Amino acid sequence: MGARGVEVVDDAAGLEAASRLPIAALFAVEPQQSEPRSPRPEGLARKAIELLSGSGRPFFLLVEDEEIDTAAHANDGVRMSRALHRFDGAVAAAADFASKDGETLVLVMGDHATGGLTIDSRSRGREIALLWGGRGHTGEPVPVFAYGPPAAAGRFGGLFEWLRQNVHGVGASLSAQQLITNATGKPLTAAPWLRYAEGKYLDEAG
Protein backbone atom coordinates (compact mmCIF):
# COMPACT_ATOMS: atom_id res chain seq x y z
CA MET A 1 0.00 0.00 0.00
CA GLY A 2 2.87 2.33 0.72
CA ALA A 3 3.97 2.10 -2.93
CA ARG A 4 0.55 3.43 -3.89
CA GLY A 5 0.80 6.44 -1.61
CA VAL A 6 -1.16 5.01 1.32
CA GLU A 7 0.36 5.87 4.70
CA VAL A 8 0.42 2.73 6.88
CA VAL A 9 0.54 2.97 10.69
CA ASP A 10 0.53 0.10 13.18
CA ASP A 11 0.13 1.67 16.62
CA ALA A 12 -1.62 4.51 18.43
CA ALA A 13 1.42 6.79 18.29
CA GLY A 14 1.71 6.37 14.54
CA LEU A 15 -1.96 7.15 14.09
CA GLU A 16 -1.71 10.28 16.23
CA ALA A 17 1.23 11.52 14.17
CA ALA A 18 -0.49 10.89 10.83
CA SER A 19 -1.22 14.07 8.90
CA ARG A 20 -2.55 13.09 5.49
CA LEU A 21 -4.88 10.83 3.55
CA PRO A 22 -5.10 8.09 2.41
CA ILE A 23 -4.13 6.13 5.51
CA ALA A 24 -4.50 2.53 6.70
CA ALA A 25 -4.26 1.82 10.45
CA LEU A 26 -3.41 -1.87 10.87
CA PHE A 27 -2.94 -2.93 14.49
CA ALA A 28 -1.22 -6.18 15.50
CA VAL A 29 -3.91 -6.64 18.19
CA GLU A 30 -7.45 -5.39 17.74
CA PRO A 31 -8.00 -2.36 20.02
CA GLN A 32 -11.17 -4.03 21.32
CA GLN A 33 -9.17 -7.01 22.56
CA SER A 34 -6.37 -5.15 24.36
CA GLU A 35 -6.28 -3.70 27.87
CA PRO A 36 -6.21 -0.81 28.33
CA ARG A 37 -7.95 0.00 25.06
CA SER A 38 -5.54 1.86 22.80
CA PRO A 39 -6.51 3.64 20.73
CA ARG A 40 -10.03 4.12 22.05
CA PRO A 41 -12.99 4.70 19.70
CA GLU A 42 -13.03 8.37 20.68
CA GLY A 43 -9.43 8.80 19.60
CA LEU A 44 -10.06 6.96 16.34
CA ALA A 45 -13.11 9.13 15.64
CA ARG A 46 -11.34 12.41 16.41
CA LYS A 47 -8.37 11.51 14.20
CA ALA A 48 -10.61 10.42 11.34
CA ILE A 49 -12.62 13.64 11.58
CA GLU A 50 -9.43 15.69 11.70
CA LEU A 51 -8.06 14.11 8.53
CA LEU A 52 -11.34 14.01 6.61
CA SER A 53 -12.41 17.55 7.47
CA GLY A 54 -8.93 18.81 6.60
CA SER A 55 -9.37 17.59 3.02
CA GLY A 56 -11.86 20.38 2.35
CA ARG A 57 -14.36 17.95 0.82
CA PRO A 58 -17.68 16.60 2.15
CA PHE A 59 -17.22 13.24 3.86
CA PHE A 60 -19.08 10.26 5.32
CA LEU A 61 -17.62 8.53 8.39
CA LEU A 62 -18.87 5.33 10.02
CA VAL A 63 -17.67 4.54 13.55
CA GLU A 64 -18.53 1.29 15.35
CA ASP A 65 -17.53 -0.40 18.59
CA GLU A 66 -18.18 -3.98 17.54
CA GLU A 67 -17.75 -5.28 21.09
CA ILE A 68 -21.22 -3.99 21.98
CA ASP A 69 -22.66 -6.71 19.75
CA THR A 70 -20.08 -9.34 20.75
CA ALA A 71 -20.80 -8.80 24.46
CA ALA A 72 -24.56 -8.98 23.87
CA HIS A 73 -24.12 -12.31 22.04
CA ALA A 74 -22.32 -13.53 25.17
CA ASN A 75 -25.02 -12.03 27.45
CA ASP A 76 -22.24 -10.14 29.23
CA GLY A 77 -23.86 -6.97 30.56
CA VAL A 78 -20.70 -5.58 32.21
CA ARG A 79 -18.61 -5.94 29.06
CA MET A 80 -21.41 -4.48 26.93
CA SER A 81 -21.78 -1.48 29.23
CA ARG A 82 -18.06 -0.75 29.04
CA ALA A 83 -18.18 -0.93 25.25
CA LEU A 84 -21.17 1.43 25.18
CA HIS A 85 -19.30 3.86 27.43
CA ARG A 86 -16.32 3.81 25.07
CA PHE A 87 -18.57 4.31 22.06
CA ASP A 88 -20.20 7.27 23.80
CA GLY A 89 -16.81 8.99 23.60
CA ALA A 90 -16.83 8.58 19.81
CA VAL A 91 -20.34 10.04 19.67
CA ALA A 92 -19.15 13.00 21.75
CA ALA A 93 -16.28 13.55 19.30
CA ALA A 94 -18.67 13.62 16.34
CA ALA A 95 -21.19 15.88 18.11
CA ASP A 96 -18.41 18.24 19.17
CA PHE A 97 -17.27 18.61 15.57
CA ALA A 98 -20.85 19.00 14.30
CA SER A 99 -21.63 21.75 16.82
CA LYS A 100 -18.63 23.77 15.62
CA ASP A 101 -18.96 22.98 11.93
CA GLY A 102 -22.68 23.72 11.68
CA GLU A 103 -23.12 21.67 8.50
CA THR A 104 -22.58 18.13 9.74
CA LEU A 105 -25.32 15.59 10.51
CA VAL A 106 -24.57 12.96 13.18
CA LEU A 107 -26.71 9.81 13.29
CA VAL A 108 -26.40 7.32 16.15
CA MET A 109 -28.10 3.94 15.79
CA GLY A 110 -27.75 0.20 16.02
CA ASP A 111 -28.02 -1.99 12.94
CA HIS A 112 -30.01 -4.53 14.98
CA ALA A 113 -30.74 -5.67 18.52
CA THR A 114 -28.97 -8.65 20.09
CA GLY A 115 -29.78 -10.90 23.01
CA GLY A 116 -33.37 -9.78 23.69
CA LEU A 117 -32.17 -7.63 26.60
CA THR A 118 -34.71 -6.27 29.09
CA ILE A 119 -34.38 -4.57 32.48
CA ASP A 120 -35.95 -6.67 35.22
CA SER A 121 -38.37 -5.24 37.80
CA ARG A 122 -35.96 -6.33 40.54
CA SER A 123 -33.72 -3.36 39.62
CA ARG A 124 -33.29 -0.87 42.43
CA GLY A 125 -31.64 2.53 42.16
CA ARG A 126 -28.25 2.16 40.50
CA GLU A 127 -28.41 -1.64 40.70
CA ILE A 128 -29.83 -2.85 37.38
CA ALA A 129 -30.94 -6.45 36.94
CA LEU A 130 -30.67 -7.59 33.32
CA LEU A 131 -32.66 -10.36 31.65
CA TRP A 132 -31.44 -11.88 28.40
CA GLY A 133 -33.77 -13.60 25.96
CA GLY A 134 -31.15 -15.39 23.91
CA ARG A 135 -27.78 -15.03 22.24
CA GLY A 136 -28.77 -14.17 18.68
CA HIS A 137 -29.96 -11.12 16.80
CA THR A 138 -33.48 -10.09 17.76
CA GLY A 139 -36.22 -8.02 16.20
CA GLU A 140 -36.81 -5.15 18.63
CA PRO A 141 -36.99 -1.70 17.03
CA VAL A 142 -33.71 0.17 17.38
CA PRO A 143 -33.76 3.95 17.95
CA VAL A 144 -32.16 6.53 15.68
CA PHE A 145 -30.76 9.72 17.22
CA ALA A 146 -30.06 12.67 14.92
CA TYR A 147 -27.99 15.75 15.75
CA GLY A 148 -27.05 18.58 13.42
CA PRO A 149 -28.64 21.24 11.22
CA PRO A 150 -32.42 21.30 11.88
CA ALA A 151 -33.19 21.00 8.16
CA ALA A 152 -31.34 17.67 8.08
CA ALA A 153 -31.93 16.28 11.56
CA GLY A 154 -35.61 17.24 11.39
CA ARG A 155 -36.21 14.88 8.49
CA PHE A 156 -36.04 11.97 10.91
CA GLY A 157 -38.92 13.32 13.01
CA GLY A 158 -41.45 12.17 10.41
CA LEU A 159 -39.97 8.68 10.45
CA PHE A 160 -40.24 8.47 14.24
CA GLU A 161 -43.86 9.63 14.17
CA TRP A 162 -44.73 7.13 11.43
CA LEU A 163 -43.16 4.31 13.42
CA ARG A 164 -45.00 5.34 16.58
CA GLN A 165 -48.36 5.42 14.83
CA ASN A 166 -48.00 2.38 12.58
CA VAL A 167 -45.65 0.05 14.41
CA HIS A 168 -44.65 0.80 18.02
CA GLY A 169 -48.05 2.02 19.21
CA VAL A 170 -50.04 -0.90 17.85
CA GLY A 171 -47.52 -3.69 17.58
CA ALA A 172 -48.61 -5.45 20.77
CA SER A 173 -52.28 -5.59 19.75
CA LEU A 174 -51.88 -6.87 16.19
CA SER A 175 -50.55 -10.02 14.61
CA ALA A 176 -47.43 -9.76 12.46
CA GLN A 177 -49.58 -10.22 9.35
CA GLN A 178 -51.96 -7.41 10.36
CA LEU A 179 -49.10 -5.11 11.30
CA ILE A 180 -47.36 -5.51 7.95
CA THR A 181 -50.60 -5.09 6.00
CA ASN A 182 -51.51 -1.91 7.89
CA ALA A 183 -48.03 -0.43 7.53
CA THR A 184 -47.38 -1.27 3.88
CA GLY A 185 -50.85 -1.69 2.42
CA LYS A 186 -49.99 -5.21 1.28
CA PRO A 187 -50.09 -8.60 3.00
CA LEU A 188 -46.86 -10.41 3.83
CA THR A 189 -45.90 -13.00 1.23
CA ALA A 190 -42.82 -15.00 0.34
CA ALA A 191 -42.83 -13.68 -3.23
CA PRO A 192 -40.06 -11.05 -2.79
CA TRP A 193 -37.76 -13.58 -1.13
CA LEU A 194 -38.47 -16.19 -3.80
CA ARG A 195 -37.62 -13.71 -6.55
CA TYR A 196 -34.38 -12.88 -4.76
CA ALA A 197 -33.48 -16.55 -4.24
CA GLU A 198 -34.28 -17.49 -7.82
CA GLY A 199 -32.22 -14.61 -9.19
CA LYS A 200 -29.26 -15.37 -6.92
CA TYR A 201 -29.05 -19.14 -6.99
CA LEU A 202 -30.39 -19.92 -10.46
CA ASP A 203 -28.02 -17.38 -11.98
CA GLU A 204 -25.11 -18.88 -10.06
CA ALA A 205 -26.11 -22.37 -11.19
CA GLY A 206 -25.86 -21.18 -14.80
In N-to-C order, the SSE pattern is EHEHHHEEEEEEHHHH
Rg (C-alpha, Å) = 22 Å
Largest sheet: 2 strands, parallel
Number of strands: 8
The end-to-end distance, rounded to whole angstroms, is 37 Å
Strand content: 5-15%
Summed up, the helix count is 8
Explain briefly what this protein structure is:
With 206 residues, the chain is mostly helical.
Please describe the topology of this protein.
Elements: E1 7-9, H1 12-17, E2 23-25, H2 41-54, H3 67-73, H4 77-101, E3 106-109, E4 113-114, E5 118-119, E6 130-131, E7 137-138, E8 144-147, H5 150-153, H6 155-168, H7 176-184, H8 191-205
Parallel strand pairs: 1-2
Antiparallel strand pairs: 3-8, 4-7, 5-6
Helix pairs in contact: 2-4, 3-4
Structure notes:
With 206 residues, the protein is mostly helical. Helix content is 46%, strand content 11%. It contains eight helices and eight strands, in the order βαβαααββββββαααα. It has helices at 12-17, 41-54, 67-73, 77-101, 150-153, 155-168, 176-184, 191-205, and strands at 7-9, 23-25, 106-109, 113-114, 118-119, 130-131, 137-138, 144-147. The chain has a two-stranded parallel sheet with strand order 1-2. It has a two-stranded antiparallel sheet with strand order 3-8. The chain has a two-stranded antiparallel sheet with strand order 4-7. The longest helix is centred in the middle third of the chain and has 25 residues, at 77-101. The chain is globular, with a radius of gyration of 22 Å. The chain starts with 6 loop residues before the first strand and ends with a helix.
